[in-house]
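Pilot study result, target chain (202 residues):
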Amino acid sequence: MAKSFYGFVRDAWKRPETSYAGTNAGGRAGTRAGTGTRAGAGAAARELRQKRLVAWRREPAVVRVKRPTRLDRARSLGYKAKQGVLVVRVKVRRGGRRKQRPKHGRRPKRMGVHKITPAKSLQRIAEERAARKYPNLEVLNSYWVAEDGKRKWYEIIFLEPANPAIKSDKSLNWICSRKHKGRVFRGKTSAGQKGRGRAVGR
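Predicted structure:
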């Protein structure tokens, strides 16, 4: 059985160091080093990632995007190119919580400044921040897109429950029920269920 287009996109995201380049770039890079297309593909992948991060660092924390960066992952999580479906990219800082140092004295052990981590994953935090920005939408799911030394970027898939296109879609209209209102704040998304220990393993 032939592999679909999304299968090749998924393989490219699994090994980005050997993707995103054509044979011309690989030939130029591999002439001296003798590494063939692999070296040129890796250089092109690093250059593309660098350009993306330079642009994304200057953007606000929550930005709506026209189309998913990882189309294969978005489609597997329920994304459809139709009315009522939106994609938002969210930037969150990495590491533990930033707590202010107490003014009054105590032992360094009892300061409670360092090694204080939230009980939520950064992906779940990104989903909640995006949901507060778009209160009329519901979070369907999210996925990782990039990271550097200071930040991580996630893309959140939103659905508009009041949109007729969503109401008439048999695979998406379940989110129009009132019991799914504010589902991201109750840990009902995939990232939220993992943080609550509700993810079913094999």
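One observation from the pilot: The helical segments are 5-14, 23-33, 37-57, 71-76, 122-133, 164-167, 190-195. A full batch analysis is planned for the follow-on phase.
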